[in-house]
Structure formats: C-alpha cells, structure tokens
Amino acid sequence: MSRSPETEPALNLARPKLGQWVMAGVLILSIGLLVFSSVNAWQARATERKQIMSEESDAGAQIFVQRESFNTLLSIQDWALGVVQARDVQISRALLGQRLTVITSSGLTTWDQTTRTYQVELPKLDKLIRQLSNVSDTKRDAFINSRRVFLDHFRTLVIKLNIRFQQLSRQQVLQVSEARAQSELQQSILLAVILILGLGLSVWLSRDIRRAYVITRTRLSEERNRLEATRRRLVLMRQLESLSRQWLELISAATPSAQIKARVAEDLAALEVDSEHIEDSELAQSRANEVLAVLESRDQNERALEYQKDFDSVTGLPNRSTFTKAIDAQFESAKSSGLSLGVLILDIDRFRDVNSSLGYAAGDDVLNLVASRLSKAMLHGESLARLSADEFGVLLQGEDEKQVLNRATQIANQLSFTTELAGQEARISVCAGLSLNGSDVANAAELSRSAAMAIYLAKAPGDREGFVLYDPNRHQSMMNVWHEEIAVRNALRSGEFKVYYQPVVDLQTGQAVGAEALVRWERPGVGLVMPGNFLSSVQRAGVTVELGWQIIEESLMAWSSTLSGFVTKDLVPYVSVNLDLVQLQDPNLANFVISALQRNKVPAAALVLEVTEHAMVNQPNALEQLRVLREQGIRIALDDFGSGYSNLGQAHQLPLDLLKIDRSFLPDAALSDRSASLISDIKQIADSLGLTVVAEGVETQEVADSLAALGVKCVQGFLFSKAVPAEQLGEWMAVR
Amino acid sequence: MRTTNRLIVVALGAAMLLPALSGCATQPVATITPSASPTNPYGGFKVDNPKDTDVVLTVSGKKTVEYTMGELKAMADQKISILEPFVKKRQDFGGVFLKALFEQSGISPSDKVDTVALNEYEFADTAANLEAADAILAVSRDGQPIAMDAGGPIRLVFATNSKYFTYLDAWNWSLRTIKVVNK
Predict the structure, then answer these.
(1) Per the domain annotation, does A687 fall within a domain?
(2) Which residue is closest to B89 within chain A, CA to CA?
(3) Banded model confidence at residue A692, pLDDT cuts 50, 70, 90
(4) What Cα–Cα distance (Å) separates residue A567 from each residue in A294, A716, A733, B68?
(5) Could you give the number of structural domains in chain A?
(6) I need a labelling partner for B84 at 20 to 30 A (CA). Which of A503, A522, A625, B27 fits?
C-alpha cells in the first residue's frame, strides 16, 4: 500500500546534516592549516634565499675567518722575511678581528663558530704580534724560529677550523632538513586528514544523495501510480455516473426491483474493474448500493402508499376504501346467506374542539382510544374502519335485524367513557348512525349512503341516545335540506351565484348616485332564485363568508367596468354591498376589502358597506373593523333601519354615513300620515347626525314625491329599476 | 551516523595535534672570553688608524687619483643611518658618494670597476650599478674614524633603500684601491 505524502515524514534533501557541517568545517580548517603551513614553508625558504643574499652565510664567514687567519700568519712570515712591517701584521690581525665580529645567518658570531683551541690560542698569537714591533730587523728570523712550533700549531688549528665548520654546516643542514621534514610531515598529515575528511564527506554526501534519489524515485513512482489511479477512478466515475442515470431511469419507470437488481449486477460485472484495485471495486459497489438504496426507498414508499391506500396511518385501521370493499363483498354474500347487515358510522363528539384546544396529539390520542375500544369490541365477521377525521365505520352482521341493532347499541354504548387528555379529565362520546340492508336497499352503495345520512341526522342538534337508525320515509325532508346545502356549495364552486345591481336615484336630479349589489342564484333547471330562498342554505352550508367575498370582488369589478364610466367632478357613483354578521366576525374583513379595492383600482369613496343595526351593536370587533374601513374613505350604511330592532339613540355612536329606511315603512301606493311622521322624524335625526337617508322599496311616483317632500334625497325601488346585471345597469344609467 | 561522528572527532584531534608535532629545539653554545681591542671584542689589540696625510685610497680611471685620509674626510658630505648587516647594529656612517670619486678619475658608468681591500678581497661591478646603488665610501662611523678592526679606515656602505643593501658581497671593507678593469 502506498503511503500518502501527508503521512510520510518530510525528507529534506537540500539541507546537509549537522555532522556533515562539522566535517566540512574541519575539512576547511585542515585546508586552511595546510595552506598556512605551505605559506610558512614558502616564506621560510624565501627568507632563507633572502638571507643568503642579505646576511653573511655561516660558510662564507667561516671561510673569511680561515682566510684572514692564514693572511695573518702569512703576514708574520712576510715580516720575518722583512717584506712587511709589524704594522702590516697588526692590520692583518685587525682585519681578522673584524671578521670574527660578523654575525652570521645562524645568529652566532664567527668567533662563536671557531674551535675552543682556536679561541684559546688566538690571544697567544696576539701577544706574539704585539712583540713584533719590538724585534729588530736582524732578529726577526730568530724570533720567528723560536716560535715556529706555536705558529705551526696555530696553522694546524686554523686548518682544523675546517672540520669544525663542516660540523657546524652539517648541523645546520640537519636542522634545516629536520625543519623541512617536520614541515612536510605536518603538511602530509594535514593532507591525509583532508583526504580522509574529504573522502568521508564525499561518501556521506553521496550516500545521502543516493538515498534522496531513491526516495525521490519512489515518490515519483507513487505519484505516478496515484495519478494513474485518479485517472482510472475518473473514467470509472464517468461510467458509474452514466450507469446510475440508467438505473435511476429504470427506478423512475417503475421497473420491477428484481429486474433492476439483475441489471445492476450485470452492469457491475461488465465494468471490468481490476480486482487488484480494491478502491475501484468499492467505489463501483458503493455507487450501486446508493442506487439500490433509492430502489429500496421506492419500494418502501410504494408499500407505504399501498398501505395508506387501504389503511389509516393514525389508528392502523382499514380506511374508507377498504371498508367500502368489505361492504360490497358482504352485501352480496348476505344476499345469498340471508344474514342481516348493518353499517354503523360513529362520529366523535366535539373532536374539532379537542384538536383546537388540546392539540392534534391529544386528538390522535382520542382517535386511538376509540379505535382501540372498537377493535376490542369487534366480533367475527364484523369489519372496522376509520372513514374520515373523526368518523369510524363498523360493518355489523347478524342473523336478523334485531341482532344487528343490539350490536350497534353495544358498540355505541362502549364509546361513551371518561379519560385523561393532556392532564385533564375529558368525556368522550360519539354520535352514531346505522343503516340496515333491508329489502328496500338495492345495493351496497345505497347501504353506505343511508348510513352517511343516518350519521348526518345524528349530528343534528338535539338530545339523542344510542344511534340513529336510518328510515327513508321519516328522513326525506332532512334529506332535502342536506341536498340543498350540497347544491349551494356546488353553486358557489361553479359560479352560479350572480350579482345584480339596483340603482339608487337622487330624487332631485333623477340620476343614479349608486347601486346596491344584490345576489341572485341562476340555478340550472330552476331559473333565477332570490336570496330569501337560498341564504339559509348558504348559512347552513357554512359558505356565507366565501360567498360574501365573492360578491364584494364581483361588485368592485362591476364598478370598474360600468359605474366608473359615470364618474363626474361632482359625483362618484358608488356600489353598496351587504355584509353578513358572519363576515363582520371575520378578522380579515378590513384587509380583504382594502386589498380588493387596490386590486380592482376602485376608489374607497365608491364603496358603501351595508350592515344591519343588530350586527353592529353585537359585534365590538366588527365596529373596530368598520372604523378602520371608514378611515380609508369607505362609507358605512345602516341597512333595514326600522325593521324591528331599531335604536336611534345608539346611532350616533356608530361609524355611519348613510341610513337606509327599511321597505316596511313604505306602502305600495302612498305614505300614511303615521309613516310620513316617522320618516320625518328619522330624517331629522339623520340630518342631526350628518347621515344621508336612502329609502328602499319605492314603487310608485306618489311615494317618491312624498319622500321628496319629506326631504329624503335618495331612493331605490321598482319605480326606477329592479336589480339588473351590471351591463343593463350601465345601459339604464346611460339613458337617464 | 555515530561512526561518522567518531571519525570526525578523531580527525579533529589529529588536526589539533599537528602544531605539537612541529616543535624545534636549539642547543646553547658555550663561549670563551676572547682578547679584545678597544674597538672590537675580538680585535686583540689596538691598531692605529692612518693619519690624515696618509694615502688610503687610489682610484684609477682615465686618470689615477690618490686620496689621503684627510682629503676623503673633507669630501665626506653624505650621512646615512643603517642597521649594519654584518654586526646587526644601528650605526651612522659619514662619507662620499663613490660616483663623485668616479667622476674625479674619469670613470664612466659603463666602466667595470674593481674594488680591492687591504686583504686583497675584490668586488667588481659596473660603475653604473654602483652609482645606481648610491654606493658611499664611508670614512666615519658614529662620528668617529672607522677602526681598523671594524672595517676601517674606509669602507663601502649602502643605504637601507639601496638595491645593494642586501648584496653583502658589495660591502667591501678596508678599501685601498678602485680601478677600471674593462679589459
């Protein structure tokens, strides 16, 4: 296995070791010493040569000593012969004396280099020479002869000086040779040291260099292998990427697992991954495993979906689909066997309250508790299912209807119990509806629908106990109400509710100042249905708010398309929309209205919201929202004023702009005195509060004239126009 | 590694021992007290210098000129102080340039001249070389006549910066004759 560069200790190939530094230092020192020694030797020889020239050499000086000694003896001889005078002998001796003072290159005087006998006998010669001046010419020969022995002896000494001088010379030669030998030995040793050190250092360095070379070569080889592995890996990864894509496509295409697994194994085998490269094999297997994990996940999801298709995830019970299949199966079976079947639907009371007050976890706890109790209560041949949020279904069977009814009673009673939820004691109960497969039930579907109707009836307000058994004759009217609610819901979804507009006319100008939006149901197969005939169904179906928003949106669109064409500098015609009590309770009212105005680019002054006095007085939150809307410039009208619950005393506390007098004040033909008096009073109060009065339901010109006479400015009613679609309203206004 | 370090230590030791191997001893020499003269420890006795009227030098060129001690003293116009190379002592000499004497005798620079001492020691060279070396004929040493046993009465000396200062053969003592020896 190759080592990674990070884990391998760094080898510093460029830096010599401490020992090599020391060795090199010693080598340099030795070379320095050798150079120093050679220079010294060269200097010594140079000095020697110089001294030969600048100093009297020992040999030269010695020769001169001998020469002068002989000269002195010859002078004495010449004196004896009468050739020279005594002074000449003395001068010769003086010149010898001068020679004896010379300091030679050895540092000694020539005197020092003479023999001891010479040195002892020389003073005797001096004495002889001093006597010469006292000897008469005739006695010179005799004088000398008398001293012949001494003179011969001295001559011999002078001759023997040669031996002495040779000894000295040899000594000097020896010393010089010794010094040179010593110097050469020194240099040789230094040279040897240098050679040894140089050789050692070279060997050491070459060994290091060789080692570094080997390591570098190994590293390069490893690096090459790594690069090759990386290249191979990249190729493999590209292949795996392509294969993975194909495998994933097979998974997406819902190919069976076994087929995909076989394909993966086949593709892996075809990859031809070298078994020596374990990492490559592992990589390929790892990628395949990832894909197989996706495959497993797909299969799991499919199994989960399969389970969810048939079972409820919270309680683990079969769901509606499974329950329906069970009913279908047993209905046909019961037909032939003659057994009685019953579909019992159980709905947990106030389950929505549990969820909203204690949380969904508590809600799930309740569901599981009920499911558990029901499961335990099941007998052979009975089926149990969770049908929807808080609805459970039980398919009962018995020898006869009575047996089924008893089972239904037992089960319903078991589901009334006390438990602890979120630390609080809670009472759990259900309402139940049962349908039986009597002779009048044609099929399983009808049996199920009957059970659904029974539970619907069971949920209706009122005291009840046990369960409600569906009876087709007794429950027909209820069925109608139920169907009506369904129809209303469908109508809302399919856009069957239309908005019509009744113009509000200024009695003085005869022109429309606005229009009231009134909803109509264009019911297929029935025709135009007035609000009085469907609003209660809307309310029961719980879609009042939804319908209300739809009317506001459509009215503002109609203003943009129609009424906006009649805007003048003195008049902005408005569209007034009725708000239901339920809408006023919605906290999003103000936000919705303001954003709807912006969405449809309608000025706030062009919208009037009509509310009943009852709604305003009993909804503090509604008042606040209306104030917000009014601050935006939207006007608020008090609708149906005078229809029963009226309190003029409170009107001044409300955020109002218009007061609409209920149509009950206005008779068809003409105003009575009492009505006129009441309208007059209302008009005065409205004036005092700064409210504009609008009278509804004006159907005759006489009434219109009377109202004009009472100061009522605006009216609406059949006298001018019934409620019409937006397009017709535009046409009507155009011709006024 | 450890072997290599030991080798270094041995080499270092060897290098350090080298100076010890280079020692050299000198044997002392016993001396005997010589008989001295007043001017030379080995002179034996005093030898009188020539009188001023005595001829001490003969210079022979185109003409021969004999110089008495007195004449030479009178001509002495040069003074040098040198470390006398034979006795290794600093001494002051007074004398005359040899060149002046050459001119007196009509010796030209190209002439080869021979200087001869009382003991017949000779040194021959061209007049040009001797002139270039500023050869001086000294007649006094340290303000005194040069003793006979100190190379006197007259001798050739050279200044320290002269090219012949280290050429001791040219230092002729107790000079008596200078002559042209062209042929």
Answers:
(1) yes
(2) A103
(3) very high
(4) 66, 19, 12, 163
(5) 4
(6) B27
d(CA A48, CA A700): 163
Q: Which among B180, B84, B87 is positioned nearest to B138, based on CA atoms?
A: B84
Neighbours of A348 (CB within 10 A): 21
Cβ separation of B150 and A182 shorter than 8 Å?
no
d(CA B123, CA B129): 12
CB nearest to A200's CB, from B4, B119, B148 = B4
Residue A116 has pLDDT above 70, yes or no: yes
Asked whether residue A590 is domain-assigned, the answer is: yes
A618 and A729 belong to one structural domain: yes
Q: Is the pLDDT of residue A579 over 50?
A: yes
CA distance B47 to chain A (A): 6
The ipTM assigned to this model is: 0.83
DSSP-assigned beta bridge partners for residue B115: B123, B178
What span, in angstroms and rounded, lies between the C-alpha atoms of A531 and A551? 13
Contacts of A483 (CB under 8 A, 6+ apart): none
Question: Based on the domain organization, do A387 and A277 belong to the same domain?
Answer: no
DSSP β-ladder status, A574-578 and A512-523: parallel
For residues A195 and A87, membership in a common domain is answered with: yes
Give chain B's length: 183
Q: How confident is the model at residue A135 (pLDDT cuts 50, 70, 90)?
A: very high
Alpha-carbon distance A273 to nearest alpha carbon in chain B (angstroms): 47
pLDDT at A29: 87
- pLDDT for the residue B24: 36
Q: Do A685 and A539 share a structural domain?
A: yes
Are A54 and B168 in contact (CB < 8 Å)? Answer: yes
Of the candidates B8, B32, B117, the beta carbon closest to that of A116 is on: B32
B166 part of contact set with chain A, CB < 8 Å = yes
Burial of B24 (0-12, 13-18, 19+ CB in 10 A): exposed
Question: Which residues in chain B are closer than 8 Å to A200, comparing Cβ atoms?
Answer: 4, 7-8, 11
Helical ranges in A253-310 per DSSP H: 257-270, 278-310
Distance CA B43, CA B47 (A): 9
- A302 and A322 fall within a common domain: no
A439 DSSP assignment:
T
Of B21, B37, B85, Cβ closest to residue A54: B85
pLDDT for the residue B18: 45
Question: Which pLDDT does position A670 carry in this prediction?
Answer: 77
Distance CA B77, CA A249 (A): 129
Q: Report CB contact under 8 Å: B168, A93.
A: no
Using DSSP bridges, classify how beta strands B122-126 and B155-157 pair: parallel, antiparallel or unpaired: unpaired
Do A520 and A384 lie in one domain? The reply is: no
Taking the C-alpha atoms of residue A338 and residue A404, their distance in angstroms, rounded to an integer, is 13
Residue B27 CA to residue A112 CA, distance in Å, equals 13
Same domain? A452 vs A387: yes
All structural domains of chain B: 55-180 (3.90.420.10)
- B165 and A54 within 8 Å at the Cβ level: the answer is yes
A222: tokens are 């490893």
Lowest mean pLDDT among A232-236, A617-621, A626-630, B78-82: A617-621
Q: What is the rounded CA–CA span in Å between residue A636 and residue A620?
A: 15
CB pairs under 8 A between A and B: 147
Domain of A191? Answer: 1-244
Return the percentage of chain A with pLDDT > 90, whole number.
47
**Residue B26 reports pLDDT greater than 50:** no
